[in-house]
Design goal:
The chain has helices spanning 20-25, 43-48, 60-71, 73-84, 90-106, 111-123, 152-164, and strands at 34-36, 52-55, 166-169. It has 170 residues and is mostly helical.
Length: 170
């Protein structure tokens, strides 16, 4: 398995990163399967990296992100790099948010949708993921114009883990 510390690809409300020491201290020493019904950013999963896991979430685009990181990580990274090559003005951010919302409306779950989700998470206010009553992403711009949106080695480590372990994503 992977030796490197892995952190979540996105910030998620209710994330458990700051509670990992307490959570892991209270976990059983031995178990057969790991179940994560509300994966969110996946801090616990990526910290303990069980050999066999079942992860789930009601957010289709979040589930798609994990599927794409497992199956099309290189394409996701390429698309994020392409987004990072353009200065993130307010207008550019809102055009990408609209593109992402069109994917939500059409039910498209692909590498581009995953890349947009990760990229928007890094450029939206406070790393929030929030949707309106129509299910559309509506977080405003955070005024971050430049900078990398991902730690490429971390994304590769997430993908390696998802491919090496038996992780069932639903």
């Amino acid at each position: 398995m992977i030796d490197k510390k892995i952190s979540p690809a996105i910030k998620w409300a209710g994330g458990k990163t700051q509670l990992l020491n307490i959570i892991t201290a209270n976990m059983p020493d031995c178990y057969n399967n790991y179940y994560e019904p509300f994966i969110g950013g996946g801090a616990v999963l990526l910290n303990i990296r069980p050999e066999k896991a079942f992860i789930n979430d009601i957010n289709d685009q979040l589930v798609n992100m994990y599927v794409q990181l497992k199956n099309a990580m290189e394409e996701v990274l390429e698309r994020i790099h392409n987004l990072d090559e353009v200065p993130c003005t307010k207008e550019f951010y809102y055009s990408k948010r609209e593109q992402y919302n069109q994917k939500i409306l059409s039910g498209e779950k692909d590498a581009q949708a995953a890349a947009l989700m990760i990229w928007l998470n890094k450029h939206c206010f406070n790393g929030l993921y929030r949707v309106n009553s129509k299910g559309l992403f509506n977080v405003p711009f955070n005024n971050r114009v430049k900078g990398k949106s991902v730690d490429e080695s971390n994304i590769r480590a997430i993908s390696d883990y998802l491919n090496q372990a038996k992780v069932n994503i639903t």
